[in-house]
Amino acid sequence: MTNQITEEKIRENLELVKRGEPLNISLAVLNGEFKKAYFERQPKFRNCTECGKSFKVTLNKKGFCSVKCRKANKLKKIKFFPQRLSCVICEKSFKQKFHNQSTCSKKCNKDKIAEQRHQYYLFKKSQSKQKE
Ligand SMILES: [Zn+2]
Ligand SMILES: [Zn+2]
CA torsion 16→22→24→28, rounded to 10°? Predict the structure, then answer.
């Protein structure tokens, strides 16, 4: 018996998978062949969703030609209207610089995260008490 992976063998094993029968090559090998075939079928070039420029598709680059375009597209999706809010930590009034901003400064944001962690901790603690 030869262990060579041939097209025929892969096809044979695909049939075995469909029927739910044991394979005669390892699943890892079959998976590897699947992935290779899948990537070979993928178009090598695509048009960027943002600027329409043609670019080479790689594992990390699928919809956009560049990080810039990906970010630009993301920003478009989030309709951001800066608002004047009062900081959830120190209550100082501030104007939002980015989406979801609820604190006036980095320092207050740190405090907010610490506060959230603390709240989460208390929540978990009260849950484990209920179970007892
Ligand atoms: Zn682009
Ligand atoms: Zn603040």
Answer: 90
Domain ranges of the chain: 7-41, 45-77, 84-131
Rounded distance, CA 4 to CA 22, Å?
A: 18
Ion ligand 1: residues, CB < 5 A: 48, 50-51, 53, 65, 69
* Closest ligand to residue 86's CA: 2
pLDDT mean across residues, the chain: 84
Question: How many Å apart are CA 71 and CA 64, to the nearest integer?
Answer: 9
pLDDT tens for each residue of 58-96: 767 778 999 999 998 887 776 777 889 999 999 999 999
